[in-house]
Specification:
With 631 residues, this protein is α/β, with parallel strands linked by helices. The protein folds into two domains: 451 residues, Amino acid/polyamine transporter I, CATH 1.20.1740.10; 145 residues, Rossmann fold, CATH 3.40.50. The chain contains 23 helices and five strands. It is elongated.
């Protein structure tokens, strides 16, 4: 517990939950980290699609694509604001789909969000790891472990509670937003004053580029649009995390969503327009943002400061998933689609099981894909587009059903948003399918089937446990007994403790020993007789090393012989060491025995701890064994 408290801090009381809620000031950076990090490369993604095909002619289309993306952002902001009004418990696209579209569409939305959140973490830390390795090539052999370390760092910060993670991760996000805002403002001031001019590239970079429009097509424009829509990732997180905000939670969530939209529009629009004015094109070994920073600030302190916080924000982008996904898993757990453990809060009142789930799966992805952003990117953003489409279409159906004031224009706004995001799904999936998006096409249905299976399991168990009228299994007047079986390894003090307990609960006690050698059985019977132990000893001899199977057969035989209302209690000694590290010196047979016994309907397994402490006095040891009994 001391180590746990050192890492996570002192546990919080349940009544402290209000103090863990997020204000607007801290909620914005926590929700914005993913979206803001995407802004840093969204404009570059558009150019990477257009420039290789139509060369410098790309500059004619980038403004219209950027405007379309910002229009879609406004539609999403309005839509998710409505979702916050109507679904204050969080859950976003999942709850919208569940109420308006049905069970399977809601599972599709949930599966898509789960995958997207996990991919956000894996892609973010891998990008940060690659950025550091690019600056320090000597760290290449440990690139994967750097990414793993980043995941562990963000996980630890979130396990310490919402408020502490807000302070830890919120400040760097604000600094990065401030840096980009300063870059945009200074850049346009220098353009207006004539001290900043378009970039001039060397001929070997531009010689393959032209203004030819022969490669231009609608598919190319749609691909560029879909790539630029990476700036929209993270917008849905606010509607998923409404309960994490201070009261009035809905109002604060809507304010944060509006502020987030304003920040994205300003940063994305500003950096994209500034890049166009400076005629920046993608160049291997550098980014659009770093080229803009070089032109505006030169090789000054501000240039390196922006590069540093660009790398930091890539790490912090993972934090958005830690705020959205655990709450989504909590809602899914209450609905019975994921294990109930996801509904439990940890000692710091955070959904620690959901946080650890993100950590484990993200680390597996990082290791399997070698912390390669290039290999992970095709799996990224597909899920969020699916959730966008379902939430938009779900709200479209809702307005059509309710038909309240202003329902028509609301319905058509959401309908248009659903159509645009559906196009985004098709374009992203088709363009990235061969590169790896096919894995998402398999993973989402598999995850839906797993959640559906879990739900059916919980429903079946619930029906089995439902008690509509209390009626005892047996009449109170009947005589019911439990037969006690003490499992013995050897004749020692732990056996004495087991017998004391067995005699306290039953007058029919059997001591059972599973023996692998006949000679040892004879010796044991002699020692038993010499000590005069007042209990029946039964020895089962087995020619194999396995003791689990013969025990199971013995218990089955005893269980069949039970009378109506009788039961068996099997007492197992568990050796408890003074130090946690001593446990590796003892076999963990207790776990396997208990697991086998749990399969029997009328058998109870009782784990009796035997504590070993070298500093305990003989008198105290005797009291532990005999209690208040007299010799």
């Amino acid at each position: 517990m001391n180590i746990k408290n050192l890492l996570l801090g002192k546990p919080l009381k349940n009544t402290d939950i209000k103090g863990q809620k997020l204000s607007k000031a801290w909620g914005l950076p926590l929700m914005a980290s993913d979206a803001v990090s995407s802004v840093a490369y969204a404009g570059q993604e558009i150019l990477l699609v257009l420039v290789p095909v139509i060369g410098l002619g790309a500059f004619h289309f980038v403004p219209w694509i950027a405007l379309s993306i910002m229009l879609l952002l406004l539609i999403l902001i309005v839509s998710y604001s409505q979702i916050i009004d109507h679904y204050p418990s969080g859950g976003g696209a999942y709850l919208v789909s569940k109420e308006n579209l049905g069970k399977m569409p809601s599972l599709l939305a949930a599966s898509s969000l789960i995958i997207d959140y996990i991919m956000t973490v894996a892609v973010s830390v891998s990008s940060a790891s690659e950025a550091i390795v690019a600056a320090f090539p000597g760290l290449t052999p440990v690139k994967i472990w750097l990414a793993v370390a980043f995941v562990l760092l963000v996980t630890l910060g979130n396990l310490r509670g919402i408020q502490e993670s807000a302070r830890l991760f919120g400040t760097p996000t604000y600094i990065f937003i401030g840096c980009l805002a300063l870059l945009i403002i200074v850049g346009f001031i220098r353009l207006l004053t004539g001290s900043l001019h378009p970039m001039v590239y060397s001929p070997n970079i531009t010689q393959g580029l032209s203004n030819s429009m022969t490669g231009l097509s609608l598919v190319l424009i749609l691909r560029a649009f879909a790539s630029g829509c990476s700036a929209l990732t993270g917008v849905e997180a606010v509607s998923n995390a409404i309960p994490n905000f201070k009261e009035p939670a809905q109002h604060n969530a809507k304010m944060i969503l509006a502020m987030l939209g304003g920040v994205i529009i300003f940063l994305f629009g500003g950096t994209t327009l500034l890049g166009l004015k400076l005629q920046i094109i993608p160049v291997n070994g550098t980014t659009i943002l770093s080229q803009i920073s070089t032109m505006v600030f030169g090789n000054s302190f501000l240039f390196y400061f922006i590069q540093l916080f660009t790398a930091i924000i890539l790490i912090l982008a993972a934090n958005t998933a830690y705020n959205g996904l655990p709450l989504l898993l909590y809602i899914l757990a209450h609905d019975g689609f994921v294990p109930r453990q996801f509904s439990h809060r940890g000692t710091k009142l955070s959904f620690s099981n959901g946080i650890m789930f993100i950590c484990i799966v993200a680390i597996l992805l990082v290791v399997v894909f070698g912390a390669s952003t290039h290999r992970l990117i095709p799996l990224y953003s597909v899920g969020v587009f699916i959730s966008f489409t379902l939430s938009q279409y779900g709200m479209f159906r809702k307005w059509h059903k309710l038909r309240d004031k202003g329902w028509q224009h609301k319905m058509w706004i959401n309908g248009f948003g659903a159509l645009v995001t559906l196009v985004g799904v098709c374009v992203v999936m088709s363009s990235k399918f061969i590169d790896g998006a096919w894995m998402i096409a398999i993973a989402i249905p598999v995850l839906m089937l797993i959640m559906n299976y879990i739900n059916k399991h919980y429903e079946k168990v619930g029906e089995e446990l439902t008690l509509k009228r209390f009626h005892p299994y047996y009449e109170q007047s009947a005589s019911h007994k439990t037969q006690a079986i003490v499992l013995m390894q050897s004749i020692n003090k732990s056996l004495l403790k087991s017998l004391n307990y067995a005699n306290a609960i039953s007058d029919n006690v059997t001591v059972l020993h599973i023996c692998r050698h006949a000679e040892h059985a004879k010796e044991l019977q002699k020692n038993w007789a010499d000590l005069g132990v007042p209990a029946k000893l039964e020895i089962v001899i087995t020619p194999y090393q396995d003791i689990i199977t013969p025990l199971d057969k013995y218990i089955k035989t005893r269980e069949r012989a039970l009378k109506h209302g009788d039961s068996l209690s099997v007492i197992i000694i568990k050796f408890i060491s003074e130090h946690w590290y001593d446990a590796v010196l003892h076999t963990q047979t207790t776990y396997f025995l208990e697991r086998v016994l749990s399969r029997h309907k009328n058998v109870s397994s009782i784990i009796l701890p035997f504590h070993y402490n070298p500093n305990i006095s003989p008198e105290e040891n005797r009291r532990n064994l005999f209690g208040n009994q007299r010799n």
